[in-house]
Specification:
about 20% strand; nine-stranded mixed β-sheet; alpha+beta
Length: about 400
Amino acid sequence: MPARTSSPIPSALEQLGSPTDPLTPTDVADLRRFLILVADPRDARGLRYPALALLCQAASAVLTGARSLIAISEWITDAPQHLLGVLGFAADPLTGRRPVPHAATVRRLLQRVDGDALDAATSAYLQARTPSPVEPDAENGSVRRVIAVDGKVIRGSRTRAAAAIGLLAAMDHHGVVLAQRQVASKSNEIPSFTPLLDGLDLQNSVVTTDALHTQHDHGAFLTSRGAYYVAVVKKNHPGLYAQVRKLPWRDIPLGHRTRDHAHHRDEVRRLKVAAFSHLDYPGARQAIQVLRWRRDLSTGKLTIERVYLITSLDIYDATPAQLAAWIRGHWGIENLLHHVRDSTFREDDSKVRTGALPRAMASLRNLAISVFRQDGRTNIAAALRHTGRDYHRPLRALGLM
């Protein structure tokens, strides 16, 4: 992980070990080694429960399907005494029993915790827990991983005085969240793009974005960091859009074609790629046209859509089939992350609105979803039910025991 980052944790992995004290596989699997870097925002006077234990408790409870602060508190209330010791709760010297925190204690911590620090710690844990997957290119396997960047609004966080909180996330195409950042109020996702990715090792990675992030500054940033991009071009960039759309697409041979039959519809995707050296965008080497034909089998309605993209990959970096897979895979962030947080964790129905609570809960949900994805679990709802049937399972999954 590079030293440069906008997070309060300069480089979580660098702080966890040194050449004389190398990290072992057990170390990087232990969430405590990362959450200990998150500062306790509470007044030190009268503290009864350590922040590290509370954060581990919250993370473990979310892995069992806890959707609210009350559910997190109920999970720890019913936990066996020996597991409280594993989480870091001290025993009372008189009774020998370990008291459990009230839901208000968890709330006070999570509503004041530094969201950037929590996201940096959990993201560093996920990156260390499983090495980044390699996406081989057509020749020499230089593309290391593919990262999708997309935003989500937590609708339940809206109040009368403030708009709902927006979060921008970077997720690899295998479903693991690598970074998350809160979008500033009265702003949009564009200023958050560079700070979001600044703490990641982007060398030889491919970053896929929608049209909002097809910005000259973003393209220059990615190329300066040794990354490639695949970016959608729409009419919000009229000059670039016209330049790409007016290419002689009829004369360009078909590069890739797929046909799918699912969800009561037939869908055909046709992809063409044009090498073009004069695109008005930093590092752009090729333009892409994707033509989608969708026929609804129940109504017979046919929909035709043309999508234009640009990429800094040249013809030797990726095949048309890989480009098609990455373009389609970009929308996986909606299905693999945002849809799961909404449908399985009921995030938009949550009424937590105070301070950093909405972001902290989203971070814990990202952690749970990503851990399950890394463990090969594709059905997150089933994974939550399975983990919730045994108090030891979430702690084992997070390396806490």
